[in-house]
Write a structure and sequence with these properties.
The protein is α/β, with parallel strands linked by helices. The chain contains 17 helices and 20 strands.
Length: about 500
């Protein structure tokens, strides 16, 4: 312990009885003996799931569908597919993510020689690829007779032409049992897009994709399961009708199930977690939302693998004002993380994150990762179309407790489904075009790495150890200090990339 103890410990700063937000305090600097590139942001987001960057997208219908989930997984985070859609569509969105990148593709889509070009085009539109193996009987383990790619049908006008008339039959294959590295070498030498793996009888066993090699090289930190598929989560409600939804998501390979409740300490959620742990014992469950130790204890005791923390701090959430209930977010994160630490359960700070500094602060007070909505809203990968208003390019962004979202189905999240009078706990609005998350997220986390360098810690685990050893020091921040810490005394200035300020 340093003999000079500037500032306060987290225990001291969060025991005043006054709720604090991220803006109400600063982390005091530490000793620098490493570069930002030396910082590792690898973290657990549930009992058994680890990702390289502590970022999860919120399951909001204007934030996360498969396009966002794929992008975040490639970048080292994870996306959570919202449930304001039919069961079949949400399951299909999960499937798109799980199929996006593989090592050995053991569940490849196959067709028979008598399928048509029209059917190939439909598959391409649904899954985003068209290099499809053709087996004699059209089954996944049938005898391989050809492969069909864009080059075979791009200029074919007759969409009802059968595949056997145009498919490639001069195939390069690899034998069953080939290693992934050897299969990749064959792909590189052949310059083909797909490499079928076949057994001694010529039956299709699996498939290796050239595009996956490129993705592996471009995105080395991608979040993947043991089968080299991208990780993805999905949200569900506690409503009994969602039991069928859960089964469909599990069937498609969902990695993390988020029970989506504004106030998660309820008999409904507790009973659902108990039932899920019996029906799907290996499924990872993130429970919440909670903000107190009592709430956290109730969900951990019945088997929650992670906790989602936050009640009312989001930019489009008005829960604290309308319901007179909730907690200041920084205080909620610290207190629940302190309790969950006893059970080795990760906590996810959900809401109130406006920039890279807030991410660093959330991690410094015990969060294992942050869940964000507004920070990603307006990016290219979010659902919805851009529109113009007064010459500004915008996208819709709405809270899941807004009247519009509840009418689409999210009322289940607030126990409001079927109510004649619905009380909004969120608003609907629009946000400016922010470009692509492929530009924004790397910038965001380079900033977080610089923050870790200033604080003096190389990774999240050592930061948390310093937090609970009282070596990490904090200082309250007056309103005047907050103003001084931001841009001031300028006539005008150019704002940096969103998330920096």
């Amino acid at each position: 312990m340093n003999k000079y103890q500037d500032g306060l410990s987290a225990e001291e700063i969060f025991s005043t009885g006054k709720g604090l937000t991220y803006k109400d305090f600063l982390v005091l600097p530490g000793y620098i003996d490493f570069l930002p590139e030396d910082v590792s942001l690898e973290t657990r987001i549930s009992r058994n799931i680890t990702i390289k960057k502590p970022l999860i997208s919120s399951p909001m219908d204007t934030v996360t569908e498969s396009k966002m989930a794929i992008a975040l997984a490639l970048l080292g985070g994870m996306g959570i597919i919202h449930y304001n859609m039919p069961i079949e569509k949400q399951a299909a969105e999960v499937e798109k993510v799980k199929r996006y990148e593989n090592g050995f593709i053991t569940d490849a889509i196959v067709l028979s020689p008598h399928n048509t070009i029209r059917e190939i085009i439909e598959i391409k539109e649904k899954f985003g690829f068209s290099g499809i193996p053709i087996t004699k009987d059209g089954t996944k383990n049938g005898v391989l007779v050809g492969i069909i790619t864009n080059r075979d049908f791009d200029f074919e006008k007759n969409k009802d032409k059968q595949i056997f008339e145009i498919m490639t039959t001069d195939l390069i294959t690899a034998p069953e049992g080939v290693s992934l590295s050897d299969a990749n070498e064959i792909l590189k030498r052949s310059k083909k897009g797909k490499l079928p793996i076949v057994d001694k009888e010529g039956r299709l066993v699996s498939l290796v994709s050239r595009s996956d090699l490129v993705k592996n090289k471009e995105y080395p930190l991608a979040s993947k399961d043991k089968n080299k598929r991208l990780l993805v989560g999905a949200a569900v409600s506690t409503h009994s009708s969602d039991r069928e939804r859960i089964d469909a998501l599990v069937e498609k390979g969902v990695d993390l199930l988020i029970i989506d409740s504004a106030q998660g300490y309820s008999s409904f959620q507790i009973e659902l977690i108990k039932a899920l742990k019996k029906r799907h014992p290996h499924l990872e469950i993130m429970a919440g939302n909670v903000v107190t130790k009592t709430q956290a204890e109730g969900l951990i005791q019945v088997g929650a693998d992670a906790l989602r923390i936050g009640m009312g701090p989001g930019s489009i959430c008005i829960t604290q004002d309308t319901m007179a209930c909730g907690r200041a977010q920084a205080t909620a994160v610290y207190q629940t993380a302190l309790f969950a630490k006893k059970f080795d359960i990760p906590v996810i700070a959900d809401g109130g994150i406006t920039n890279m500094g807030d991410v660093a602060k959330a991690l410094s007070i015990g969060a294992h990762a942050v869940m964000v909505g507004s920070l990603l809203a307006g990016t290219y990968e979010t659902p919805g179309e851009y529109f113009y208003e007064n010459g500004v390019r915008l996208k819709q962004y709405r809270g899941m407790a807004s009247i519009e979202a509840m009418q689409s189905g999210s009322g289940k999240r607030y126990f409001a489904e079927g109510e004649k009078i619905r009380v909004a706990q969120g608003v609907s609005g629009s946000v400016m075009d922010k470009g692509s998350v492929f530009e924004f997220v790397p910038y965001l986390f380079q900033g977080v790495k610089h923050a870790f360098q200033d604080i003096g810690y190389r990774d999240i685990s050592s930061l948390h150890k310093a937090l609970y050893d009282n070596r990490l020091r904090f200082e309250p921040r007056s309103f005047a200090a907050q103003l001084q810490g931001g841009v001031h005394s300028l006539h005008s200035y150019k704002k940096p990339i969103i998330g920096a300020d």
